[in-house]
Amino acid sequence: MVTPFMGYEWDFAAVFRHRELLLEGAKGTFRLAGMAMVIAIPLGLFVALLRLSRLPVISWIAVVYTDMFRTSPSIVLIYWFFFAFPLLVGVDFDTFTAVSLTLGLQTGAYMAEVFRGGIQSIRPGQWQAAKALGMGLGTTLRYIILPQAIRRMIPVFFTRLTELFKATSLAAVVSYPEIVQMASRVSSDTFRPIETYTVVALFFFTVIFCVSRLVRYAERRFAVPE
């Protein structure tokens, strides 16, 4: 359908004729974001615990990791992990491995600070009560501290995952077939860049908006009572 608007004739039909490419790109985006989350969440928790360690050396290592990845541009890290890191370890990385590792490690650095803030927000009396009951550190974290901390972390947690989902678009720089890379192909084939990237923008908006509704429900459902 061609619709004139402010002197420009919009034609989304040309874009939708190539919907298979966009759907393939959307799958690639979800796959990449999912793998990065699998890396980032447990890594963030692990680094947060290292950061809270009373051993200065271990805490210092965690600080170096978080500062290095939080201050580095994502696109630079993607190039580095795709071109330089394989030379250092002697292993060839495909684009999916390089980008998911990059985004996972960088998001893990941010998640470490989210977990650390959530854990430190729990009153010391909780730790003392668990210790008085003879509970070990691991048991205390699992059953007492983390359930409360995670409920406090939900809004910031979602913000970081949103940034991760949007950062997947940077994978196009190494030709990983996510939705922006596939949109570039559709734009070249149809000569309709405005319509193509409008569809991509709507894709990101729809996904993030729907997830934000779920997060707001979870935030209300699991809110910590005062």
From TrEMBL:
- What name does this protein carry? Amino acid ABC transporter permease
Keywords of the record, alphabetical order, are:
Amino-acid transport, Cell membrane, Membrane, Transmembrane, Transmembrane helix, Transport
Q: Which Gene3D superfamilies match?
A: MetI-like
Cellular localization per UniProt:
Cell inner membrane; Cell membrane
Q: What InterPro entries is this protein classified in?
A: AA_ABC_transptr_permease_3TM, ArtM/GltK/GlnP/TcyL/YhdX-like, MetI-like, MetI-like_sf
The protein's topology relative to the membrane is:
Multi-pass membrane protein
**One Pfam family this chain carries?**
BPD_transp_1
Please list the residue ranges annotated as the ABC transmembrane type-1 domain: 26-215
Subcellular location, principal: membrane
- Transmembrane residue ranges: 30-50, 77-105, 196-215
On the tree of life, the source organism's domain of life is Bacteria
Q: What does this protein do?
A: Part of the binding-protein-dependent transport system for glutamine; probably responsible for the translocation of the substrate across the membrane.
Q: Which family does it belong to?
A: Belongs to the binding-protein-dependent transport system permease family. HisMQ subfamily.
CDD domains per the UniProt record, alphabetical: TM_PBP2
- NCBIfam families cross-referenced by the UniProt entry: HEQRo_perm_3TM
